[in-house]
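Re: duplicated header lines in exported structure tokens

Our pipeline writes sequence and tokens for each protein into one text file. With two proteins the header for the second block appears twice in some exports. Here is an export where it did not happen, for reference. First protein block:
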Amino acid sequence: MNYRYITLKGKNKKYFTKKNTNIRKILIRKLIEVIYDDEIIVFLDETTFNQRNKRIKAWRSINDKNDYPEEGIIKRLNLILAVTKNEIIYYEYYTENTNTLVFTNIFEKILIAIKMNMKYNKLLQNNKICFYLDNATYHHGKVLMNFFFLNNLKIIFGAPYSCEYNLCEYIFSYIKNKYSKTSFTCL
């Protein structure tokens, strides 16, 4: 077989597969149905920020097995965001790795924030709120799926490699571009 190196402009090559294109069409139909039913879509996503955005470079012997102090390790800071087209409903910073249990605990806090807001609480009681999540593996965990089922929540999972449908991604992009040259020691 002959191979040719090509550069794709702006998108992952998996974005253009026939399967993913069909999934995106189905996703758009679901979103249109939700909008026509006068439901509110709450977009949820998480991102990671480094406390230092500069790379740390150092020479180290291949055979060197010594552990070095954590001063040289870049610490991660995660941000989770829940937004509608009009406002930010909830956000939280956390430092642990994201998994199904961490995300379920945060999702419980998001539901509490929604219940405290009179406008969104009425919509939640009438089952008029739909949550949009990307396809991270911990969004499909059994614990989280049981949580969605027990709370009678409507969930739409985004199409693979299609972050342009999630409003959170635009906010994250703005934040990261604005503070890309900044070095944080704490937040």
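Second protein block, exported in the same file:
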Amino acid sequence: MFKLDTSTPNYSHINAYVLSQLCYYTYFTPELLIERLNTLSIKHEDIIYVNKRDNYSLIIITAEEVIIVIRGSDTVQDWLLNAQLLLTSYSKGKVHQGFYEVFKQLYTDIEAPLKKEIAKGKKIYITGHSLGGAVGILVADKLINSNIPVHSIYTFGQPRVGDYNYAKYIYTILPNNYYRIVNNSDIVPRTPPRNLGYTHSGLFVYFDSKGIFRPTMYWSDVLSNKVDELLDNLYNPGLVEIKDHDIGEYITNYNNLLSPILLNTIPTELVIKRKV
């Protein structure tokens, strides 16, 4: 069974698969969570549950790493279509007001247990699906500025977090260890809209409409893929954008991608470079 490879912060299919599973597990009961962790060969020393109102995260502590997993929203409309789309000043730019409010509720309880674990030489991973990915970026920013290093970040279906200045700043503190994974037509990474001042950061990792990993994908290629997809889904307009956001779709992509690894036919690690 696959487990996290902590030897490098470079992009790893296996690490992405494990972390996507953990994002899914945030919706489980504690008892079922522990059972599933065992299937991922994650031998945890402790699990800390951080639950503030409707916002929830896990801190999974093992002998080698600390994994911060932040749950997404139950309903996309809760945070895409409300008044909190406004940008508010934070760090080196401006960020989504709603994401910032969730971050403030969770952060103190996330930071507290980390300092002891960092003193033991453990590496920090951050992951999240949807809103959880966006909040994870704010958490990483704060940790780094508190002299707590972040080994790598993997987000799935993450919306835009802030403005151009904030995105540019994130590239400076997380230059080659923040991976923003997008499944085909997932609508959430296209929100909040650019015309409200939002810009993405992170190293772009893309799966196309056939579930094929595209390591050198540019937005011109994405547009071409959209044309093919529109033809494939001519009689179900709009449905694929919601379906593609489901964390289960991301997990399926990695399940399909990783099965040949057992036969040593594809690499498990790739260097994903920023596309300018």
